[in-house]
Design goal:
By secondary structure, the first copy, chain A, is an alpha/beta fold. Chain A is 45% helix and 15% strand.
Chain lengths: 273, 273
């Protein structure tokens, strides 16, 4: 089917529109999409420039590009709709029915989401990120009292990206603690984690996948040998089982999927930013 | 207007649906929304449980809850629609027009976005996160060759959360380097950054806001004195000006807004996950 151009045009970051269009277009695996993301399109001059890009693309490719928009301002939106694109506006389709249902007209203010409009909530988000960096990879266990969750698992099982995602996206104070060789031998929860076992969550991973990941980092080392990976994963899973810890095999899961599962399993409080 | 319950029901993480509903509902500032997020609702039993929650809520509050859904499976979606809610499905409204426009039926496969379906892209995302943690706060400048962008600025001007967001969300290799007191005195770009000036991006911040942030961290210290904040911000802005560095005053901007601006200003390549 070839390639189709997709424009994402937003008066703010475009991040929401981009995620939603990506969700939708991954439902059409036969087509390759060439994304052009235009954020901060918030005045008539920028709309005119975006229109030109759409028209040029339609002319060049002989087919209208797909255009996803989140434009709060009706005037700007209708100006853009004059371009030669196939338009899908995420506001247009939902705001009117929501206004009817909520019996209130919408504010039409740009940039209310992803903004600093709620300063206190925002400060707590930054605090969560700083905490997760501060308590990455077993650092500063003396601060675990403040953690909402402490991820554990063997080296390279996904703890760091997941902790940071939980902090950035949900404002969760997420520490992570790698279980070391000595602690694996013991077959019990490391001493340092014992007082916090209610907030410990274990990650595990297929040993073959772990070996691949470790090899990219440090090839031909004891660390990346399959036998070592098998041993560590076996031991860590035994600890989870013996201690009855909630845990997750994250081998084929994305950071988003791992994070959403942990939040659900531990019923963590989280924010929406 | 009081509080209105909002359900977000997804067959996967619900993160996309959550972001879009948050974007939409922040347009109704008079109403407080009580979010109930139900991810991984992917079989009939879970749909039945979700239906029950919706019906119970409608009964309790005397008004239908708002229900945002992203359910790929038509059968599950229509089952859920029998509940006593006001439904907004993000797939339903867009998939049919997209199928017409793209002349292809959609795959109806669950979890294509936020998934590991593209392993190579996914590995590069994790590598970006590891790089950003590895090169946080001036660590490992010997690895700046691999950076896509090096954020700089005074302490607490937003470098760390922004670097991590760029890595996690866009797969960008983002380092960050805090300009120290000695380097501020010199009024030129720190030596360590000079070979990489094409990828250096400066953050700045209002000194009063900086003082607030620093006070939360270390109150009543020289570090958090307004005069010190004013001095540092003045010096750093002078460096940006003298060196002609791209820079941004991030005082009232969210992490998303800062990140999207940097990507635009430096025309960085980025992925969509």
């Amino acid at each position: 089917m070839g390639t189709r151009t997709v424009f994402i045009i937003s008066d703010r970051t475009g991040i929401t529109a981009e995620m939603l269009s990506h969700s939708l277009l991954t439902q059409f695996p036969g087509i390759e999409f060439d994304y052009r993301i235009l954020p901060f399109v918030d005045d008539e001059a920028k709309i005119a420039a975006a229109k030109q890009q759409i028209d040029d693309d339609a002319k060049e490719n002989g087919v209208k590009p797909i255009v996803f928009t989140t434009l709060v301002n009706d005037n700007l939106r209708y100006l853009l709709f004059e371009a030669n694109g196939e338009f899908f506006d995420f506001f247009d389709r939902y705001i009117a029915p929501l206004e009817r249902e909520l019996k209130q007209t919408s504010s039409h203010r740009v940039g209310e989401s992803h903004s600093m409009s709620d300063a206190k909530k925002y400060t707590s988000r930054i605090a969560a990120v700083n905490f997760s960096v501060h308590c990455d990879d077993g650092l500063h266990p003396g601060d675990y009292e403040r953690a909402d969750v402490i991820l554990t698992g063997v080296s390279r099982s996904g703890k760091t990206p997941t902790s940071l995602y939980l902090a950035l996206h949900f404002g969760i104070f997420a520490a992570n603690y790698p279980i070391t060789d000595d602690e694996l031998e013991a077959s019990t929860l490391p001493k340092i984690l014992q007082p916090f076992r209610d907030k410990v969550y274990g990650l595990t991973i297929d040993p073959v996948r772990l070996q691949q990941i470790r090899s990219e980092r440090r090839a031909n080392s004891a660390y990346s040998e399959l036998s070592q990976c098998r041993y560590e994963v076996g031991q860590v899973e035994q600890i989870y089982l013996a201690e009855g810890l909630p845990n997750l095999n994250a081998t084929v899961m994305s950071i988003e999927e791992i994070s959403a599962t942990i939040i659900q399993d531990l019923a963590l409080n989280r924010e929406i930013f």
